[in-house]
Amino acid sequence: MKHRIVILGAGYAGTFVAGTLARRLSRADTEITVVNAVPDFVQRLRLHQFAAGQKIENPSLTEVFAGTGIQLRLARVTAVDAERRVVTVADADGGGELGYDTLVYALGSHGSNSGLPGAAEHAFDIASRPSALRLRERLDMLDKRAGGGSVLVIGDGLTGIESATEIAESRPGLSVTLIARGELGARLSTGARKHLRRVCDRLEVAVLEHTSVETVEAERVLCADGTVVASDATVWTAGFAVDPIAAEAGVDVTDDGRIVVDRTMQSVSHPGIYAIGDAAYAIGDNGRPLPMSCASAGYTGTQAIEAIIARLTGRDVHKTKLLYYGNHISLGRRDGIVQMVDDEGAAKPKYTGRRNAAMIKTGIIKASLWATSHPTFGMPKRKHRVTTEPRTLTAVRRPDTPAEIA
């Protein structure tokens, strides 16, 4: 009987783990199935570019997994039964159940408006390709309209900054405003904040700092201080959330729904379930929770791979690095900021800006896409054979501190 590995989600984390496990584990002993709702690999890191009107490559997952032995199930995950080790899915044929021995939970995150009045009805987000496409179509319409139009980006995190600058550069006929809850670029170093402000000035992005939004309407936004901002297209980037599937399954999760994992990315409550990427609450080597990011997807995915293979082959689990070096921010196609952080997560004084930073960010994105879409590269001639049932941890109570998780 083959050991069944089911991977939920084919984003950066899920696709990377699936391809690597297929490279390193023998098909004679293992069966790998990836469940994903759409047929293509979506470059989420570039959805702000797609929304701004640029062409973004979306490789077919069928082609990505060709020759790997990975089975692709195009379906939406609706439930996980952690006790029976079964996943329920819905598809065009009505769906069904998939049994698993090892589950890799990589469903990621999605945009969340936190129940802000009017946001669901009137705001766009770019956390998924369909929502980014709706924004793109709206911007296309505004570009064709006499006099252009106004675009309002709510949220000054990395997604908000990248969206505002990208739209302003790609569509100079539209006026762009960015609303920041605090100081623009508050998490950046002093020099990087100044650079960001210079770029906003150059691209004519208006910035409203220390401003909170209370209501989103069809053609305007109402702020807590009484300010009213006109908007023909409001972009919401101020929050992200994870699906409630893990929580509904009884898996131990944080208040925001992320699966609490140990140092090997295994659920602390349900051995055999591994969480990676945005869906995992993992403590980094600096003792702090890893943030939702592509970099975290890579580190948590690598650790999960090592743990799964070790437990299936009777080896000791090797602990890989769990680090967070900093942020790579694109500011249009010709500018950017690379901001490194210290062990406390605070910005280091030095930063890299302008074209060098833009080239670094572009290189990271290209490398991520290439690695994800070429899972058979370097495939070993001899693969690991499964020699034992997975060595799992005994279910324990939820740890109270990061030190307990680590």
Secondary-structure map:
Layout: E1 3-8, H1 12-24, E2 30-36, H2 47-52, H3 61-64, E3 71-74, E4 76-81, E5 86-90, E6 96-99, E7 102-105, E8 110-111, H4 119-122, E9 123-124, H5 129-144, E10 149-154, H6 158-170, E11 174-179, H7 190-202, E12 205-208, E13 213-216, E14 220-223, E15 228-230, E16 233-236, E17 240-241, H8 245-248, E18 259-260, E19 273-275, E20 280-281, H9 294-313, E21 326-330, E22 336-341, E23 347-353, H10 354-373, H11 402-405
Parallel strand pairs: 1-2, 1-7, 2-3, 7-19, 9-16, 10-11, 10-16, 11-12, 18-20
Antiparallel strand pairs: 4-5, 5-6, 8-17, 13-14, 14-15, 21-22, 22-23
Helix pairs in contact: 1-9, 1-10
Structural commentary:
By secondary structure, the chain is α/β, with parallel strands linked by helices. The chain has 2 domains: 3-109 and 242-324 and 366-405, FAD/NAD(P)-binding domain (3-Layer(bba) Sandwich); 114-236, FAD/NAD(P)-binding domain. Helix content is 29%, strand content 24%. It has 11 helices and 23 strands. The protein has helices spanning 12-24, 47-52, 61-64, 119-122, 129-144, 158-170, 190-202, 245-248, 294-313, 354-373, 402-405; strands at 3-8, 30-36, 71-74, 76-81, 86-90, 96-99, 102-105, 110-111, 123-124, 149-154, 174-179, 205-208, 213-216, 220-223, 228-230, 233-236, 240-241, 259-260, 273-275, 280-281, 326-330, 336-341, 347-353. It has a 5-stranded parallel sheet with strand order 3-2-1-7-19, with helices on one face. A 5-stranded parallel sheet has the order 9-16-10-11-12. The chain has a 3-stranded antiparallel sheet with strand order 4-5-6. A hairpin with a 4-residue loop joins strand 14 (220-223) and strand 15 (228-230). The longest helix has 20 residues, at 294-313. It is globular and about 65 Å long. It starts with a strand and ends with a helix. This is Oxidoreductase. It comes from Kribbella qitaiheensis. Keywords: FAD, Flavoprotein, Oxidoreductase.
